[in-house]
Task: structure prediction
Amino acid sequence: MRPVQTKKSDRFGLVRPGVEAHTLGINSVQQLLEQCGITAVIADANVCSAIDRPHLSESVSDVEQWLRVHRITMLGFSYRLDPEQGADFFAHWTHHLKERRLFVEQGGPLRGLFFAGLPQACELVCNRVPEVSGVFAGDETPSETLAVLGIETTWVPSEISGGIAYDEARLAFGRDLIRGGGHLAIKPVDRSGYKEFGTGRDTLIARLHDARRRGLPPVMRAHVGPFLPDREEAVRLFVDWTRRLAASGHLDVLSIGTSQLTQSDFGNDWGDRPNGGGVPINSPAEYEQVWNAARPMLVRTYAGTRDVPALARIHEDTLNIAWHALSLWWFCRIDGRGPNPLSDNLREHVEALRFIASTGKPFEPNVPHHFAFRGADDVTYIVSAFLAAKLAKKLGIRHLVLQNMLNTPRYIWGVQDMAKSRAMLRLIRQLEDDRFTVILQPRGGLDYFSHDQEKAKAQLAAVTALMDDIEPADPLSPPMIHVVSYSEGSHLADPPVIDESIQITRFALEEYRRLRKKGDVDDMTDHVEVRLRMTDLLEQARTIITAIESNVPDPYSADGFYRIFADGFLPVPYLWECRQDFIKATQWRTKASGGVIKVVDETGAVISAADRVRFILDQARADGAS
Result:
């Protein structure tokens, strides 16, 4: 490897194969470079197409011309598909660059060469391509990114460095905590202080009330779902894991990670169809077996992707399910996760919500992070959560579990995540009354955790600190945490990993609060940047919600939710299924900038919520006139 020090005069070129669709990582690096005063040029579609064809001499010529025209001195190459192919691909292009004598030691312009890919690809590149200056496995913080690029941190402007400093401080807190090993001494919480505990009459609300009354730590939920090729063996293993988790006592809510076929074809003959991962439960008796093994934990599981109300009833009858989670717009044809077209999916979800309301059980909208997965901006994250909450209240739901997936996408900075969380909470809590309550349930992001296990443990502690900073003045917030196991970035979590992840989370929460009380960490209660960003997000979200409620007939209904999506009120530029059916939803552009995700025009300028609404309504009028 040949590390380099970046100069202010350097010009970065960022390229990717045309077949690699996701660009948030490249956009994030471009923004970071430009904020440091360094020019960064993202390759256009023609150059990306040329990158796809390294075997053609005209492709190599096109890339060389692009490098010379834009006076590129540092080249960054992204390939996040197959690791072996990625390393070979990068090696081929490095060979072509050398053949064209494009490196500075050959008299060419290139001083540095960087590669971004999956962890295994990065290892292969380091072994096979000695010319590489640095690699990015996808888990780097902004500060770590600058270090790999050889950029002085003093070049970062103060309004950016504050956000980076907060994230670095939390990660340093996490490293120190894991290094000390104090989390391993954390003991299970005795939650048997109410008579329904562990029985068929136990509920999430009863457990939360007991925790509040006795000042206990947050209720801990974790996702569990081993998969083996043999279905019956996989179910037996899961039941064994369930018993082990129940016996250790750290986990409060067992969240069953069922297979795709469990969700779409429960009770049917699956034949030799693939499950797609997860525990392949396929009968009410197997659910009952899990419930018995789980005592005294509460249990919940995925909703169905077909016959949604029917499977909700089965979950109620067999699991005394702690709460139901529905995805409303998602887990259907538009994301490839289910067979229902969007309109049918929404109607089934509304019917299922009516049933859930009749049981008195809480409901979790498994919604906003699915918009974020598909490129939605921060305002859309908030708006989609509010719409789901208001629909639930209208249909009679009394308790809303508000899952808030932090670090999604991972390019979001902590201070911005905090502002987004506070804005979402403030907006949705305005719906609260004596018949509707909101239960905050934060969690780490799916793609946040490093493949390096020690770093991932530190990240788990760091994101726990962020959870506490959402409402730092409230010792009872968050009341419940969805613990994402630290092994998420490398392998499936088994009971020991799940238990240690809970220990890390609980110890991090205790230690962070102790340090804040001593004044050793910043009190983020009234952080100026967070407050200003929260206020802006609230204003923009209310603008879009008002437009929806004023222009969409019966917005809080299945037909209303379909119209909201189809009319483009909820941008999803990275929706790959059914794009032609929902052109208005996919027509938007979004960009990561300064740790936030915003809707932008073709020049990269931010589009305000008011301008978005104006454009949507103009389109609707034009469609009506035609």
Residues 197-296 form one domain. The mean pLDDT is 94. The CA atoms of residues 189 and 296 lie 12 Å apart. Residues 495-518 form the longest helix (24 residues).
